[in-house]
Amino acid sequence: MHFHLLLNPALVLGTIIVYFVAKFVVHLISSHRALRHVPGPRPSSFLWGDEWLLYHSTPGVHYLRWHRQYGKVLRFTGALGHQVLSITDPKAIKYILGEAIFDFPKPKGVRAWFKATLGEGILWVEGKDAHERQRRVLAPALSQSSVRNLVPIFYETSAKVASQWTKLIDDSHSDEAEIEVTRWAGRFALDTVGRAAFSYDFDCLSGVPHALAESLDGLTNNENKLSSFYMRALFWFFPSILSIGEKGEMIRKSKLELGIIASDVWRDAQVAGDVDGKDLMSIMLRAEANSTHKMSETELVAQMRTTISAAYETVSAIIAWTLYELALDLRLQSELREEVTAALGDPSYDDLNSNLPLLDATVREVLRLHPPILENHHEARETICVPLSEPIAGTTDTHLVIPKGTILEIPVNVVQTDPNVWGPDAEIFRPERWLERKKRGIRHEREILAFSEGPRSCIGKAFALCEVKALTITLLRHFDFSCPYEIEAFQSFVVRPRIKGQGPSSLPLIVRKI
What we know:
Blueprint: H1 2-34, H2 51-55, H3 61-70, E1 73-77, E2 83-87, H4 90-97, H5 108-117, H6 128-138, H7 144-171, E3 176-180, H8 181-198, H9 211-220, H10 226-234, H11 245-272, H12 280-289, H13 297-328, H14 330-342, H15 349-355, H16 357-369, E4 375-379, E5 384-387, E6 399-402, E7 407-411, H17 412-415, H18 419-422, H19 432-439, H20 461-478, E8 479-482, E9 487-491, E10 495-499, E11 508-513
Parallel strand pairs: 2-7
Antiparallel strand pairs: 1-2, 3-11, 4-7, 5-6, 8-11, 9-10
């Protein structure tokens, strides 16, 4: 009797496992057949495909090599043999990110990651109606007109960074000190989004350990462990892997920490009841009171988690790479300092975008060569035909049929270093190219994909660019910097700098008071 009671659940479990394995194998076989005409590299590992190669190499280097060899559309192999399409064809990109964006949702594994870390916010949600509903709530607070009013806050938090750096130099009893820039970049980003979006001071710039900052650092800033590789390789088709082991515990801890802070901020805002303000919190309060666009507290907290995390990850990476490039090029650093010092007072929103051409060119060049998000991932919701600007290599096909469930990616670094667009020096950091292009009236449709494009492009672009520029101006007016270490890029959630051969992000600069 007991044997049969145990046997039946075992049979049920075995049947379920066999079903999913069979379904996975059928999908592999059908996708191999459907994409066999698409060229690409032979997998470097039978078990892991090219995932091990990609994970343990300089971010994006193999995408550059593969696309030079196989053209604008290629396929490579992921873990357990699943096929991934890599696409840099401009017509296909415009179609995928534009008119057909809702036919190409985020892959299930990516959505599982966002749900596990942030909740069901705008980065997780799919479907045109659901996405537009959430975007309507968030977009007004991050629009250009709203960011215009937030610029003074960007300068205030920038001044806090400068004050702390001055203190560190004074404490060294010298006119210079070695300062770990990535740490301060992350804390600046958190304090800025806290004050500007939620009228809330996270107090990350006091120089002491901070629970939220440490939690976010621990989650995405130390990706050299085997457990991180296994999770990255397998979560595309086994999203449940995000909930197990040490990494799963870190994900839960980060989500909890963000959730506690977001809930506290939301409750304080409800008590204050400021529905007339222009920041994100006031707009969310108005939406919460509006029966048409009403969101639950769970959704609101998810949006706040998403805003905080996105601001921390991308902005901190952009700041670090900006200061790194300036530390390498002392001529550029000097010329840029002259430009920002000549501007009287704190440049306004219009000045940041129109009247500081070298600053704008420098930040654009950082985004071009150091995009925070290396790959723009999608999945075919149904079998779909995508137009191409030129035939697939070795064929006459100017359309690509992508089978349902196929994961595809747009490697941003390949698009943004295309020598046909940027010239033979496309892989060299040279901000002057933007001034030259403007003088000649050159503008391509997809100059920068770092914030994506189309209906699902990043709504925080104007916010991010202005705060990066405000901090750069402030630091250049007070300090000069140089880099005594060999720095390499590594990929965690975003692409970060680190001392070559080390684990977590690190960018120690020699900072000297002017």
